[in-house]
């Protein structure tokens, strides 16, 4: 079934061949969707016919957000930890243990309910693709369970058994890495597209460069793509390791050396920035301008998780990127859509050109700039089209 979308005051295609600038902007546009795929994009005046018609009433239409970094399979709540941070406590990843305990104790149905609730919250705010990590189970069975549940709602599933060293392996990091790279990987790989590791020598709970390399190498040998939690708390080895191993994405990038920036600019690894984390941990923001000016590909994601950043709102992260990291509104929107697609190596999302998935979001304003201009206002939602599940 085909649908003609009309009344688009401004269309962001992210295809420079279709419109102006890197966002491929078109004014007074229309778009035809056929069987869930964009079939035609062009001026409203020359729109073809279709089986159904949806009029968005003079609003802006953008590609749905691609949230390429989220931790959504968990139980429990860490509001008290956030409250303590706002009174001066530092974030070091130690609170992850409490989410691990709550997650292990939760039923499948409880975890599924929470996960689906967060996905619905994201979708209602314009996110149409989301990556979901494990990492709060940290046993063979609990990690495999998290990935089975995640795979029910997204193909972008990431095995993060190397999130932190669980309490029962305290002082035995090598033994835990053997578990992660051995039986845990074997149980999780069938349900995962990616593998990730929290590479952070500055945290007593996370993994150093050698351990991270072992985890990523094992994941690659098992056929998984690579992603890295890199340089969140210090200028550690994570970013350079990610680039060296050809990871799709190095995430956080909060503390970067010149060598890190050069590596990201020269490689194929996307720098995924998570400004909601700096907001929620009261930390300095990454130097996004330096990355962009050096030529790195930058993505924005929420990192939605119960500890370092519990927002599901890509629009909030986009506004932070503009205000706090000096991205232009256009750079921030690109990073939250096409940038996320690049970080997930998904050519079918993050753009609205013929052949792409028809993942549309509508902004209740005449221009996408309102996403940053009106922070905190719920302007953007996924456009549900007739005949699409
Ligand atoms: O991306 N840094 C490691 N992991 C998450 C936080 C997880 C948590 O605190 O529960 C992050 O910030
Ligand atoms: Fe994360």
Helix/strand layout:
Blueprint: E1 2-12, E2 25-34, E3 37-43, E4 52-63, E5 65-67, H1 79-86, H2 96-105, H3 108-124, E6 127-130, E7 132-133, H4 140-151, E8 157-162, H5 173-188, E9 194-199, H6 209-221, E10 225-230, H7 238-244, E11 249-252, H8 258-266, E12 270-273, H9 275-281, H10 288-294, E13 298-300, H11 314-325, H12 329-343, E14 360-363, H13 370-373, E15 380-382
Parallel strand pairs: 1-4, 5-6, 7-8, 8-9, 9-10, 10-11, 11-12, 12-13
Antiparallel strand pairs: 1-2, 2-3, 4-14, 14-15
Helix pairs in contact: 3-4, 4-5, 5-6, 7-8, 8-10, 11-12
The site of fe (iii) ion (FE) has 5 residues, from loops.
Short description:
It contains 13 helices and 15 strands.
Number of strands: 15
Distance between the termini: 12 Å
In the sheet with the most strands, the strands line up as 7-8-9-10-11-12-13
Name of the CATH class of the largest domain: Alpha Beta
What can you tell me about this protein's structure?
The protein has helices spanning 79-86, 96-105, 108-124, 140-151, 173-188, 209-221, 238-244, 258-266, 275-281, 288-294, 314-325, 329-343, 370-373; strands at 2-12, 25-34, 37-43, 52-63, 65-67, 127-130, 132-133, 157-162, 194-199, 225-230, 249-252, 270-273, 298-300, 360-363, 380-382. It has 389 residues and is α/β, with parallel strands linked by helices. It has two domains: 2-63 and 350-382, Roll (Urease, subunit C, domain 1), CATH 2.30.40; 65-343, Alpha-Beta Barrel (TIM Barrel). It has a seven-stranded parallel beta sheet. Strands 3-2-1-4-14-15 form a six-stranded mixed beta sheet, with no helix packed on it. Strand 11 (249-252), helix 8 and strand 12 (270-273) form a beta-alpha-beta unit. Helix 4 packs parallel to helix 5 (173-188), helix 5 (173-188) packs parallel to helix 6 and helix 8 (258-266) packs across helix 10 (288-294). The chain is globular. The mean pLDDT is 98. N-(iminomethyl)-L-glutamic acid binds next to helix 2.
